Known about the structure:
33 helices
Amino acid sequence: MLRPKAPSHLIPRQIPFENLNPDTPNQFLSLSGKLIYLLKQCVSTKELKQIHTQMLINSIHKPNFLLPKIIDLKDFTYASTLFSHIPEPNGYAFNVMLRGLTTTWQKYPLTLQLYYRMKSLGVMPDNFTYPFLFIACWNLSELNHGRAAHSSVLKTGLDGDGHVTHSLITMYSMCGELGYARKVFDEIPQRDSVSWNSMISGYTKMGRAGDAVGLFGEMREAGFELNEMTLVSVLGACGDLGDLSLGRWVEDFVVEKKLQLNSYLGSALIGMYGKCGDLCSARRVFDSMKKKDRVTWNAMITGYAQNGMSDEAMVLFDGMKEAGVIPDKITLVGMLSACAAIGALDLGRWIDKYASERDFQHDIYVATALVDMYAKCGSLANALRVFEDMPQKNEVSWNAMISALAFHGRAHEAISLFERMTEEVGAARPNDITFVAVLSACVHVGLVDEGRRLFDLMSSSFGLVPKVEHYSCMVDLLSRAGGVHEAWDFIKKMPEKPDEVTLGALLGACRKCGNVDITEQVVQLLLELEPSNSGNYVISSKIYAGLKMWDDSARMRVLMRQRGVSKTPGCSWIEKENQLHEFHAGDNLEEISQVLKVLYEDLKDEGYIPNINAL
């Protein structure tokens, strides 16, 4: 029988010896060599299948050459089929498949299955195997499998391999076991920059910013080179700590070492300045970057949104679209936060439509931001629609909807949703914020007994320790119900000193009932906590005036002037035809003044008498 001949387009043309270069197969290569050469050059699955066909026709079995190429071309089905037909796969074949499952296809459960199959066949895992396994463990939060693999690492003596120890540190960090991660780090006999970076990054990602900055200082003292990964991690920690001084040092270091301000490093700088509230520096870095990708735009938009600069966020969002950069989920969450802050409902609706068109509306973060935006813009029906349509809800989603119902005075519905959260299978567990929301609902409609029940439920059923915010809600609830003395007793029993919010709630109640004794004690505490807050002086002055204690009323006004405290003017926004108009108390706008005069005359004609004691 004649052997089938390979198609001519798959066989390299014969090239004279004198014209060869190192990348060109010569005429003396075997068919196997020529096919392997072509395999390295192919750029599509179609070409690869043609080469594989010729290998099969010519009984050339080279799965270890085929597998990596298939994985590079991201064909999971083809790679799985080829691997399943290898009679006795060796460690290299297993490692290649583990790499594909972990980093290319992100099929982490299959990574674990393949690892255990590898061990069952007696194929010894090596230093290339474990890093992929640990990636799968942290993405699946499978700490037990990770610990078992760590034991195998110690038994086989691979704990001295850098790749294995770095991935171990990251696995333990991402699973929340920073103690184990630090133990692995401390036991490394000779650390390199990657070791330090892995530990610093672990601290930063898990919210241990102080430890990250501390370890960064040790790294510098030890004389290790600071690279891009080091700087990005420590910038994240600086942002979380609000450590503007160290953040600026990092930027100076970048300039001094002439490091490239790419998207990764530039976005970290912008994010750090944004979290520290230095938006001018954040914008300076943003404007200085020649190439801005979506991550860069998102960092700047998020910075504006988180610092209450919604107008600037919206202008930048328009600029992002004009630059041809397509918004993603992070962009939408930032913009929805900006819309919620100033009630920009029309833009919020546009973002809702945009999210639906791109199948983002069911993303848990986008949907939660939509719930919050609609609620704060007064569209509770839409907030409920988005919430109920969510295929998955986390505690933030539940909290957003409960808070929305409470904010709109729908207290009984808020409490009902809370009960549903505690009873529904698979629902998130209530946390501190949940109880703030549901207690606030009780405050809005004066459900004193229900508030007391929920407050007690925190510790008795959910093991939560009440914080200042929960005490503040209870003080507000009791105060509004007229229980000023009970509220004051409640404050005195608090495990922490009352904050300005808690005291402010009680002061408001004192003003209504005219209680001088408690008022004076509360005012004294408030002036110690917030000597620059004009509201404390104004309210206390009005309380004294209401009781005809004119000298005390005047004393508060004089004290306010002596301390250089001025009242912040009120501010409001109106959205019209997708444009936001901002107004401040004291603005001298002739047309508005004329309208107000007409309204005032109409009110007088109707017999309205202004309440001069109103705040």
